[in-house]
Amino acid sequence: MSLDSATVRRIAKLARIRVDDAEVGVLQTELNAILGYVDQLNEVNVDGVAPLSGGAQMAMRLREDTVTDGEQAENILANAPDRVGPFFAVPKVVE
Amino acid sequence: MSLLNLTIAEAARALGAKKFSAVELTAAHNAAIAALNPRLNAYITVTPELALAQAKAADARIAAGSAGPLTGIPLAIKDLFCTAGVRTTAASKILEPFVPPYESTVTRQLLEAGTVCLGKANLDEFAMGSSNITSGYGPVENPWKRNGSEARLVPGGSSGGSAAAVAARLAMGATGTDTGGSIRQPAAFTGLAGIKPTYGRCSRYGIVAFASSLDQAGPMARSVEDCAILLGAMSGFDAHDSTSAARAVPDFGAAIARGVKGLRIGIPAEYRMDGMSAEIAALWERGVAWLREQGAEIVDISLPHTKYGLAVYYIVAPAEASSNLARYDGVRFGARVDGEDLIDMYERTRAAGFGPEVKRRIMIGTYVLSHGYYDAYYLKAQKVRNLILRDFNNAFEKVDAILTPTAPSAAFGLGEKMDDPVTMYLNDVFTVPASLAGVPAMSIPAGLNAEGLPLGLQVIGKHFDEETVFAVSAALERAAGFTAMPSVRAE
Amino acid sequence: MAYSLEGKTGTWEIVCGLEIHAQVISESKLFSGASATYGGAPNAHVSFVDAGFPGMLPVINRECVAQAVRTGLGLKAQINLVSRFDRKNYFYADLPNGYQISQFEQPIVGTGDVEIELQDGTIKHIGITRLHLEQDAGKSMHDQHVSKSVIDLNRAGVALMEIVSEPDIRSPEEAGAYLRKIRQILRYLGTCDGNMEEGSMRADVNVSVRKPGEAFRTRCEIKNVNSVRFVMHAVEAEALRQIEVWESGGEVRQETRLYDPARGETRSMRSKEDAHDYRYFPEPDLLPLVLEEAFVAGLKAELPELPDEKRRRFCEEYGIPFYDAGVLVAEQATADFYESVAKGRDARLAANWISGDFFAAMNRTGRSIENPPVSGAALGELIDLIADKTINGRIAKDVFEEMVESGKPPGAIVEEKGLRQVTDTGAIEAAVAQVLAANPDKVAEYKAGKDKLFGFFVGQVMKAMQGKGNPALVNEEVKKQLG
Fold this sequence. Notes:
The structure holds three protein chains of three kinds.
Chain A: H1 5-14, H2 21-38, H3 73-77, E1 83-84, E2 87-91
Antiparallel strand pairs in A: 1-2
Chain B: H1 8-16, H2 22-40, E1 43-46, H3 48-63, E2 74-78, H4 105-112, E3 116-121, H5 160-167, E4 173-178, H6 184-189, E5 193-196, E6 216-221, H7 224-234, H8 252-256, E7 264-268, H9 278-293, E8 297-301, H10 309-324, H11 342-353, H12 356-369, H13 375-395, E9 401-405, H14 421-425, H15 432-437, E10 441-448, E11 454-461, H16 466-480
Parallel strand pairs in B: 2-3, 2-4, 7-8, 7-9
Antiparallel strand pairs in B: 1-3, 4-6, 5-6, 5-10, 9-11, 10-11
Chain C: E1 5-7, E2 10-23, H1 62-74, E3 82-83, E4 86-89, E5 99-102, E6 112-117, E7 123-135, E8 139-141, E9 148-152, E10 159-165, H2 172-189, E11 201-210, E12 220-225, H3 228-247, E13 256-260, E14 265-268, E15 281-282, E16 289-290, H4 293-301, H5 307-318, H6 322-328, H7 332-342, H8 347-365, H9 376-387, H10 393-406, H11 410-417, H12 425-438, H13 440-447, H14 453-464, H15 471-482
Parallel strand pairs in C: 12-13
Antiparallel strand pairs in C: 1-2, 2-10, 2-11, 3-16, 4-5, 4-15, 6-7, 7-10, 8-9, 11-12, 13-14
Helix pairs in contact in C: 2-3, 5-6, 6-8, 7-8, 7-9, 9-10, 12-14, 12-15, 14-15
């Protein structure tokens, strides 16, 4: 499978990364090289093999339902690039 | 006496014997950093005052008789670990202004053990790279030089700043993280020991995530014993990390002295790749001989899916990364570039904040998860990952540990291997399979190549059997007698 | 008779399914220790995990898991002992991580069944496809600043259950009944407060139309409808819109729409620049959720009696009509109130009192079952006074009103006002004789065959006795004296 420039643009859009025309060409070449490399997985027979999604093979631990965190709005907001009072602020969203 | 050439174990004994103070030890390292860091760029942020304050507290603890083996030991902390009140960048411009209000579990445990934080070590941006050239804060120079050459070499990556700092005596040890070889490969490139423990051994809480199912913290130091001491303090169960293992931390240091008599060491046929350099092949042979001489039984084994490890890795890691890095959107922390509307702001922020390698991996990761391609790429990769795990499980029915080279070459020059991303990715070919399987693996310096650059051997163990990894690594260390030092170093 | 809509080209049938998002009742959030309580100062109920800070990791809340299992059991659904969490990736200002942790391929609860009752008494079954756990998002507000939207993350990370129905719903009424029933079950279980005004329950409504017997046609999804009434209106408005599209030769496009209650119509959401591609994949920060059979069995054993069972039991145990039982079990608190009154008394009388005068007084005074106009004990006492013939039913109504008014116990009111009913046959004989004597013409008419006048005589006697005569004895005496 190989990527055309329209797909590169679509993926960049999904990933919310602005790319200019020159970058699209470079990315297309590089991404196709990577995809070309990983295509070797097509050789492997995986019939009946379960996917392995995690690094750890155990069941999940469950936490007790108690309030142990929060009440630190200033810490939460301290790194915000923009804020309005006790809120984070972003360019106006029109819904 | 130079305070800079000691191992951690030696320094701890000297501190205990009051031969020098923790403040003196830290001051010596602060001075070394001031002298050499402008050239090596091993640290992104240095914290000399904080270090001295911590050293002072360590001296008080030593005086009070409540010191541990790491009290007063100055370390470099990879700038991927969040440190409360100390800027944490992940070597990315997008986190340039970020000061975490919290401490990672691993660094918190190290602080509790009394260590001193000298500063935040450089790395590949978001730990994505094998050379440290993708850092948003400039590349790190490897303190090692080829014989008779002043050419700048890379320290490996992603924990290249940690590696360069420890090798050049700008820290006694360092924390690293390893996703596909990011501790082991730079350790090999700089003549250090470094271990990636079992997935789940060290908490990931507070470590900036690259690929969640692969990321593991681990130590880098100038001896196997130092790594054992550091790992003991770094590891342990953490309720804040759902993937953290609820297991007791063994006495890794005690395993150092076990020896390898009677151990079965596997030599995987598939790691003898086409075009492996004669030097690397010879080093490997030497390692086999050392272990045999010390009483180990050498067993030929097969890890048939090894060759697919890199392909699996370059699907799984970018996929997870593309999602993990979605939070860098200019809203709650980090850098922002204003835009006409929300989407425009996101796109400009991320375009300006991420470097080319990070963008590439986010793009690949987004693509392999996207509608219509998930099964062909991501699901397929997860299935092959399971086959790689099975390979290891099968092998470990026959052997106690596996010996391989760490990397296919010695450190290369800045600007080499940069023609295309795939060539660079091949650096990780020997380290990635253990990451995919989640098993512990350690690199130890085993010799120099003809150009005078260090080469590493890798010992891979069973899940949660770091003790055997340390035992085998220590045996190799004893046999190798590696005493070479980089030409650029503080004295 | 099945519901249908008449178009120009004939009869149309609605096909509808609901995705209900219900906020789980818990102390803390699904994956963090911050408070899950509604309200709070902006960004106060927020941990670094909820705000998606670097290096933060989710750890799942046992109670949220238990609540999902309880709900699954209440919906008579399959509990999946192994389930898994996935990431749903998309960018939005109030989604801190850039992904929502949800369950995509392996939800915690599988297929189930819910019984609904329609106005005409018909019982219908609606299939449950699945229930899964996921995180709520934060809140964006667009009216707080002239050029900016502002974000409060207090809700970010609160546990939600998404309950997905089969496309079994065939009318606006069924949609409403289904939503009400789910709400009722969740409130009984204590797994969601069902407060639709505060947004703790909301529904995405999937609607399509078809000619009877056809396969499904294209559906549209109406997002975030937040009341039963709006759901019913939205289903109808959307169905009518689709019929018009089909009948005018057009084609219904699969899309997401919004219901506008002011206009009573649905409209297309501003089409996004790029189609959604959520790139679901297994959440690598979490492990598979594996439940012990004993854990599920323990929850099952502690499950409260649910409305359907309670209603059937009320019919059997208390001998009340099915309809009345339905009214009494609508809310758990009402059912408990009823039982506290009915136990050991005339249960049918108790049912009549509660669904009659008691509800009327509650509505009139603006009070609730938790803060009733008359306590259960006092109402029981009043019914006891009727049963032991201290007062008759007619007087009881006055006493009840006085109880509402003054809060005094019924016994005291009866004594104070001398309302004990008269059972002295002598007094009744005298009163009846007096009334008959005063109305000789009416007596003649009665005897000539005008039976209806019997009630008139009884009424006159009761009036003469200020309502306190024992009705049975009065009847008997009137009959006797009229011969």
